[in-house]
Amino acid sequence: MRAQKQSVLQRQRKRRQTLRRTLTFAALAAVIVLIVVLIQTSGSGKKKTAAPSHNSTTTTTTPPTSTFPVPTTQALTTVAVAPACPPASGASKRVVLFTHAPGDCIRKTSLWDATFETSLGSFVVEMPAAQSYAAVNNFVFLALYHYYDGTFFHRVIKGFVVQGGDPTGTGSGGPLHYPGYSFTGNYPPASCKTKVTPACYHTGDFVMANSNSNPQVQNASTDASQFFIVLPGGAATLNAEPTYTIFGKVISGMPVVEKIGSYGTPSSGSGTPTAKIYVLKVTVRQVKA
């Protein structure tokens, strides 16, 4: 009987020892699981608060290749009309094709501002008619017919120029050769070819583009609707080939022009910008008669 009792007591002690070990392991496992859960929760919380900060400071060093939304504007006209001087408030209908160059529509002593509203902001150009009457008169005429509204800068070369004024965006005026005419603007002074200083072209100059193929020959007789703005660094090249009529200057918003220039290609490229920067609207205003 004594042996049986001892055997029973021994089995009971073993069961108690086994139960204690099981409870101990379970408690340790629970503690480990709790620690893991706390670590994961803490880690996910840090990521959630860090993400917005990271996104808000992300910057893009290269211009996007996608284009800006196309502005809503009236379609291009395809029937040439006689160039009657538009009202000072602007024509009611957009016209981009004419039978010949306009007559005198502004005073020869007048001073005009042209405000360009673009995809990247606005800039203002000042145009004194006395500087180049033919070019200023022509630009005011076209702007009042909403010629430039909805066009884009089709030729942008970094460190050189930002060029626009072709409603087809090709630089050639398309099959109809918009605006349907060319005219003889003011030729650059002869001194531009002989004097190094003072330079003829400067950053921010508003200049007529033309179809000149020989930089040694002044060719303002092929002025039409296209223009360009000189970017920082571009004057040196232009001063070496002074064949383009200057008829204004950017007086406000030059950083916007330079931003447009940042979407350009290098001077060795085609000049096709990496994105279409639109001229949403051009508004001209007579500052002085």
Percent of residues in helices comes to 25-40%
Largest sheet: 9 strands, antiparallel
**Would you identify the CATH H-level superfamily of the largest domain?**
Cyclophilin-like
Radius of gyration: 36 Å
Classify the fold: give the CATH topology of the largest domain: Cyclophilin
**pLDDT averaged residue by residue:** 83
C-alpha geometry: elongated
* End-to-end distance: 133 Å
Helix count, DSSP H or I runs of 4 or more residues: 5
CATH architecture of the largest domain: Beta Barrel
- How many E strands? 9
pLDDT < 50 stretches: 43-64
Q: What structural class do the secondary elements suggest?
A: alpha+beta
Strand content range: 15-25%
Count the domains. Answer: 2
Q: What would your notes on this structure say?
A:
With 289 residues, the chain is an alpha+beta fold. It folds into 2 domains: 1-51; 111-288, Cyclophilin (Beta Barrel). 29% of the residues lie in helices and 18% in strands. Strands 3-9-1-2-8-6-7-5-4 form a 9-stranded antiparallel beta sheet. Strand 1 (111-118) and strand 2 form a beta hairpin. The N and C termini lie far apart (133 Å). The model is unreliable at 43-64 (pLDDT under 50).
Features of the shown structure:
single chain; 289 residues; alpha+beta; Cyclophilin; 2 domains; 9-stranded antiparallel β-sheet; 5 helices; 29% helix; 18% strand
Write a brief caption for the model.
The chain is α+β, with helices and mostly antiparallel strands and 289 residues long. Helix content is 29%, strand content 18%.
Spell out the blueprint of helices and strands:
Elements: H1 2-56, E1 111-118, E2 121-128, H2 133-144, E3 151-152, E4 155-157, E5 161-164, H3 191-194, E6 205-208, E7 227-230, H4 235-240, E8 246-252, H5 254-261, E9 278-288
Antiparallel strand pairs: 1-2, 1-9, 2-8, 3-9, 4-5, 5-7, 6-7, 6-8
